[in-house]
Amino acid sequence: MSVPSPSSAPSRRSLSVLLWLVATGFFMQTLDSTIVNTALPAMAKSLGERPLSMQSVVVAYALTMAVMIPVSGWLADRLGTRRVFLGAILVFTIGSVLCASAPTLDRLVLSRIVQGVGGAMLLPVGRLAVLRTFPAERYLPALSFVAIPGLIGPLIGPTLGGWLVQIASWHWIFLINVPVGIVGCIATFIFMPDSRNPNTAPFDMRGYLMLVTSMVTITFALDGRTELGIQHATVLVLLILSLAAFVAYGLHAARTPRPIFSLELFKIDTFSVGLLGNLFARIGSGAMPYLIPLLLQVALGYTPFQAGLMMLPTAAAGMFSKRLITRLIMRYGYRRVLVTNTVLVGLAMASFALSTPNEPLWLRIVQLALFGAVNSMQFTAMNTLTLKDLGTGGASSGNSLFSLVQMLSMSLGVTVAGALLTTFTGLIGHHTGSSVIPAFHATFICVGIITAGTSWIFGQLSPDLRHTAKKTDPSERT
């Protein structure tokens, strides 16, 4: 691996610019994961689509990021951090322009895929550049600085998206990335160190294709019936193909010296339980940022900006509740906390089935804040459980797999929510104010049941497991 020589060590100014550069890339990535949600009804109206059939705009971005995560680290090792990070910003910016100029839903989805390719590489490659540039004693403070924008992005994303839609148009939620992207490209070319690893192992293309096939086919199976009109037989074939590809990867990884993700990781009990728990619990958590703005605008008559403001109590309560979870884990243990809190998150999701146009504003704010608090505690507890016992040897591969699962479950969450909402809307009635609200109510109940059922996975943990997480990458704690 190439590193800067003492005579060419980066200056303090260069190190500071590098941190801001990586932090800005992380902010752009996390912002675009949430800013779109409040703009979906406005997009639907502009493109001549139904608001309840716009989930593919969110799914395309999240699924593309999940697909690209295993490739990003290998590309940076082979081609160099500067070249790959510059390419990531450039592709992300071009994708943003294409999104803003898309005349149809299909073009918008394709443009979101382009945007997701760039977004998937911003954080992993930027984090790798920080790791290779900063000395060990400054690594954790540097990553903590980089992680802050990742918390701010989801906090302001829904409100900013609603505000831009209301004062201008939905196109500006993508166009705001363009000036930032141009400055980022220039700064990357000047300040980003171009470290690479000349001893990079060959990429496990066979294993990668198996994983991609499994992720893409299960998404099409869940979403294709409602949005693409795929027949039941085809859905069944896609589900079987997804399962077959997943099993094939397991057999492949057991026989390959250097698979993308080693099966040895699953011998770590906390990692395997935490990863599976994350996968299923985050389906519900990924559905809620999509469902709540739609409920507020389509069913309850909120403006985009008002819907965005209503997401602030959720984000604010989530940030304040993070400090509480460590004390609870140390006192009661991971199993009791996660089993109880997972059920509470499910109940909080299902409670939105009680939402009506006549619900007092203060009660709705309290409901959103309570959901944000228990949901944030769930993320923190699941993440620390998953990463706590990886150790140095499995940290890189385990973190990459964990990031993939996070993005995949977000994609599946929106896919499941969209499919349920479309199904219940068709069963209960079509597009009238009186029938949309019951469809939302039924969807929230189903999402809550899915989430609460995940508590069975966390029930497999040892009851005396109380140790807190080791020092890991702060950017993985969202």
UniProtKB/TrEMBL annotation:
<dbReference type="InterPro" id="IPR036259">
    <property type="entry name" value="MFS_trans_sf"/>
</dbReference>
<protein>
    <submittedName>
        <fullName>Multidrug transporter subunit MdtD</fullName>
    </submittedName>
</protein>
<dbReference type="InterPro" id="IPR004638">
    <property type="entry name" value="EmrB-like"/>
</dbReference>
<dbReference type="InterPro" id="IPR020846">
    <property type="entry name" value="MFS_dom"/>
</dbReference>
<feature type="transmembrane region" description="Helical">
    <location>
        <begin position="304"/>
        <end position="325"/>
    </location>
</feature>
<feature type="transmembrane region" description="Helical">
    <location>
        <begin position="83"/>
        <end position="103"/>
    </location>
</feature>
<feature type="transmembrane region" description="Helical">
    <location>
        <begin position="203"/>
        <end position="222"/>
    </location>
</feature>
<feature type="transmembrane region" description="Helical">
    <location>
        <begin position="54"/>
        <end position="76"/>
    </location>
</feature>
<feature type="transmembrane region" description="Helical">
    <location>
        <begin position="271"/>
        <end position="292"/>
    </location>
</feature>
<feature type="transmembrane region" description="Helical">
    <location>
        <begin position="436"/>
        <end position="458"/>
    </location>
</feature>
<feature type="transmembrane region" description="Helical">
    <location>
        <begin position="109"/>
        <end position="130"/>
    </location>
</feature>
<keyword id="KW-1133">Transmembrane helix</keyword>
<feature type="transmembrane region" description="Helical">
    <location>
        <begin position="337"/>
        <end position="355"/>
    </location>
</feature>
<keyword id="KW-0812">Transmembrane</keyword>
<feature type="transmembrane region" description="Helical">
    <location>
        <begin position="170"/>
        <end position="191"/>
    </location>
</feature>
<feature type="domain" description="Major facilitator superfamily (MFS) profile">
    <location>
        <begin position="18"/>
        <end position="466"/>
    </location>
</feature>
<feature type="transmembrane region" description="Helical">
    <location>
        <begin position="361"/>
        <end position="381"/>
    </location>
</feature>
<feature type="transmembrane region" description="Helical">
    <location>
        <begin position="142"/>
        <end position="164"/>
    </location>
</feature>
<keyword id="KW-1003">Cell membrane</keyword>
<feature type="transmembrane region" description="Helical">
    <location>
        <begin position="228"/>
        <end position="251"/>
    </location>
</feature>
<dbReference type="Pfam" id="PF07690">
    <property type="entry name" value="MFS_1"/>
</dbReference>
<dbReference type="InterPro" id="IPR011701">
    <property type="entry name" value="MFS"/>
</dbReference>
<keyword id="KW-0813">Transport</keyword>
<keyword id="KW-0472">Membrane</keyword>
<feature type="transmembrane region" description="Helical">
    <location>
        <begin position="401"/>
        <end position="424"/>
    </location>
</feature>
